[in-house]
Amino acid sequence: MILKDKRFVLTGIASKRSIAWGIAQSLSEQGAKLVLTYPNDKIKKRVDMAAAEFGAEAVLELDVGDDGHFADLTRSLESIWPEGIDGAVHAIGFAPADQLDGDFTSVTTREGFAVAHDISSYSFIALAKALWSTTWLILKPLKCYVVHKVPYLVKTHHRAQYSFVLLLLVIKIQMTSSKAQLVIMA
């Protein structure tokens, strides 16, 4: 178990077919400790199910469209794991339903495109900022780990989500001497 007792925050579980579900399964199989996040009450039930299956230590609300939620997440993580975290997974992909129904060039609007990128892309940056700026994370010396097995794949019946909107990014903070380095694996 290469990740035994390593602490990971995981975002983006929407169902058992989510990429995030497969990552949670892999992390759990490798002995990692998990905190899972959910964006709203509709998704919370599914994330609670994943938490039970993978033995997550907590399930926390994280609406990535609300900057205040990132500060709340950080405070909660500091309380759960005062010694810090070993990594985070951003696997959030969203676009309004009307932007996914039909031909890409016909249904995409500027407003829908902006929402998709705010939730799917900017949230990655906001998560990295929130975790990076936290003293308890920066001061903890870390090793770099890679999770290899992701058994669930995105399928075309997921409403043909935009490939550039659906992001699978694993954030790993690694300390090398006195310099901090952010390693992103897609």
Strand percentage lies at 15-25%
User: Under CATH, the topology is which?
Assistant: Rossmann fold
- What count of helical segments does DSSP give? 6
How many β strands by DSSP? 6
Distance between the termini: 22 Å
Number of domains: 1
Helical content band? 25-40%
Write down the secondary-structure element order.
Answer: EHEHEHEHHHEE
* Overall mean pLDDT: 75
* pLDDT < 50 stretches: 135-186
In spatial order, strands of the major sheet run 3-2-1-4-5-6
The main pleated sheet reads as: 6 strands, mixed
Secondary-structure class: alpha/beta
The CATH superfamily is identified as NAD(P)-binding Rossmann-like Domain
Q: Write down the overall geometry.
A: globular
CATH architecture designation: 3-Layer(aba) Sandwich
Describe this structure in words.
The protein is α/β, with parallel strands linked by helices. It has 6 helices and 6 strands. A 6-stranded mixed beta sheet has the order 3-2-1-4-5-6, with helices on both faces. The two termini are 22 Å apart. The relative contact order is 0.18.
Topology:
Elements (H helix, E strand, L loop, with lengths): L6 E4 L8 H11 L3 E6 L2 H14 L3 E4 L5 H14 L6 E4 L13 H4 L2 H23 L2 H4 L30 E8 L2 E7 L1
Parallel strand pairs: 1-2, 1-4, 2-3
Antiparallel strand pairs: 4-5, 5-6
Helix pairs in contact: 3-5
Any descriptors?
18% strand; disordered C terminus; 186 residues; globular; single chain; Rossmann fold; 6-stranded mixed beta sheet; alpha/beta
Offer a quick outline of the entry.
This protein has helices spanning about 20-30, 40-55, 65-80, 105, 110-130, 135-140; strands at about 5-10, 35-40, 60, 85-90, 170-175, 180-185. It has a single domain (about 5-185), classed as Rossmann fold.
